[in-house]
């Protein structure tokens, strides 16, 4: 097995929905910065219902760190709930804020 195949096998994808006071409090920008610090790929966006949706792809330990980070989020956020669904990785590249 090559290193690339091993790396691919260790990649996980978490699809996260965060509720609470998470819009208008720099949650998306803070999520982007935290993900980039951990070399996690994916995206984050606001939903019309007031939640924030994010996808994190990368090594399992780094993705789990991001899921844990979501429970606190940006300093001004007040997180009430974090729902996580694990999915098949889709090969995200980089981390961006989606509109």
From TrEMBL:
Its EC number is 3.6.1.7. It comes from the Archaea. GO terms for molecular function: acylphosphatase activity. Pfam families: Acylphosphatase. The keyword Hydrolase applies. Residues 13-99 form the Acylphosphatase-like domain. InterPro entries: Acylphosphatase (IPR020456), Acylphosphatase-like_dom (IPR001792), Acylphosphatase-like_dom_sf (IPR036046), Acylphosphatase_CS (IPR017968). Keywords: Hydrolase. The active site is at 28, 46. PROSITE patterns: ACYLPHOSPHATASE_2 (PS00151), ACYLPHOSPHATASE_3 (PS51160). It is an enzyme of class 3 (hydrolase). It catalyses: an acyl phosphate + H2O = a carboxylate + phosphate + H(+). Belongs to the acylphosphatase family. This is acylphosphatase. It comes from Halobellus rubicundus.
């Amino acid at each position: 097995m090559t290193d690339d195949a091993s790396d691919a096998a260790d990649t996980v994808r978490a699809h996260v929905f965060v509720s609470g006071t998470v819009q208008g409090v720099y949650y998306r920008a803070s999520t982007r910065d935290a993900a980039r610090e951990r070399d996690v790929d994916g995206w984050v966006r606001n939903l019309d219902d007031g939640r924030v949706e994010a996808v994190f792809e990368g090594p399992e330990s780094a993705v789990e760190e991001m899921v844990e980070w979501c429970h606190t989020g940006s300093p001004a956020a007040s997180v009430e709930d974090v729902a996580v669904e694990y999915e098949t990785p889709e090969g995200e590249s980089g981390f961006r804020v989606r509109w």
